[in-house]
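Training component of the fellowship. As part of building independent skills, the fellow (R.M.) carried out the full modelling exercise for a liganded target. The chosen ligand was 9WN. The inputs are recorded below so that the supervisory panel can assess the work.
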Amino acid sequence: MKENLIKKAIEVLENNWQGGFTIPAQGLYPFQWKWDSGFIAVGYAHYDMQKAIKELETLLDAQWDNGFIPHIVFHNDSDTYFPGPDFHQSRLHPKASKKYRSTGMVQPPVLGFVLERMYDVAEDKSTILSHLDSLIDKVYDNHVYFYENRDIHNEGLVYIYHNWESGTDNSPMWDDIWPTMDSPDYEFERRDTTHVDPSQRPTKREYDHYLHIIEIAKQHGYDDAKIAEHSPFLVQDPLFNAMLLRSNEALIRLYGLLNRGVDEIAYLRSKHSLGIDSMNTKLFDENSGAYLHFDLRSNKLLPYISSSSFAPLHAGIPTKEIASKLVETLTNKFGDKGKLLCASFDPTHEKFNPKKYWRGPIWINMNWIVFQGLKRYGFKDLAERVRKDSIELVANHGFYEYFDCRKNHPNAYGGNNFSWTAALLIDLLH
Ligand code: 9WN
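Fellow's submitted model of the complex:
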């Protein structure tokens, strides 16, 4: 089974390869997405390191002069996706790439630990180090961008200003934010709902909110300080910050292996320890037994547990005591016998919807993150359960975007032949 699955996963990746970068899925997502590219490079690293490197080189070629890496790079003029480059207008920002059009927002900073995984997987360490040598400073610049522009309280935690920046687009926690915004009823033509059953995607009203935040950011020329002041959406996300911290750790290790970067290491270390403390004092909630999202507008934690709540395990953020509490929450709320791990949203909550996008289904990238975290803390059985559930889901249903966690309702949803599902499955099978 293993060899056959790897063969099929490679086919998915090869079909989505555009000769320089990889699309997440045909039709539905026809451009290059930032965190997708990172996960995709992990898959390539196992069988074609040149492609892994090229994928990241292309993405980093679209980096802005201030270190910002956009969430979508629009390499072509596809009209199968909305909103496209004409809507986003990245060049409103004076430091935006002149070469590529993109969005004016980011996605979770996975690239540091992706480079590290490539190093660990590579057989020829000296060749991979020479490639990493030419990529690592760009990723470092991206971390500096975050800390210098998005850590507005100097606490080692960065904000996101849009739900698309979280990667977990329509998670129920954002439901509390939408009523605080007075979003217009826009007229626009959705494309996603022509590729996928609309009941598995966000609603029209949710898209109004998504567009409204972008309109506000555009009015301010995508200026970070102005966004921090005016965006109705401003959140410290435990997944996003855990990815940044995990990537800090990876960059520190890689600079060490490259035998350079003394100043860079010192900078990352100081931000890192501040960030770990803030994650544990500000984002960990004793009552929920989980890390939560902090809403900087209402100045309070959003009371919802999701798969993002467990991502800090991957970055070594929790103390042993907090890690045990997280595992208790994961087991009790997400892990009963009737469920596969790991739902993207608390299955015991009334807002849980097992079929709808980020409101419940299992996503393989989140499973990969949770698996790595559980393994890191020595929760071997639970880690293995997450790994096995992921593999079985793909083996039984195919390389879909998301999956039903209910054992008596086996199903797969969203886009098919989805790149990161294929790429991370290759990694989980090794
Ligand atoms: C908006 C590409 C992306 C993922 C996100 C996922 C989905 C886009 C969309 O697809 O978001 O960025 O149009 O729905 O939520 O995590 O990176 O695969």
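The panel noted the following from the submitted structure. The first helix runs from residue 2 to 16. The chain has a mean pLDDT of 97.
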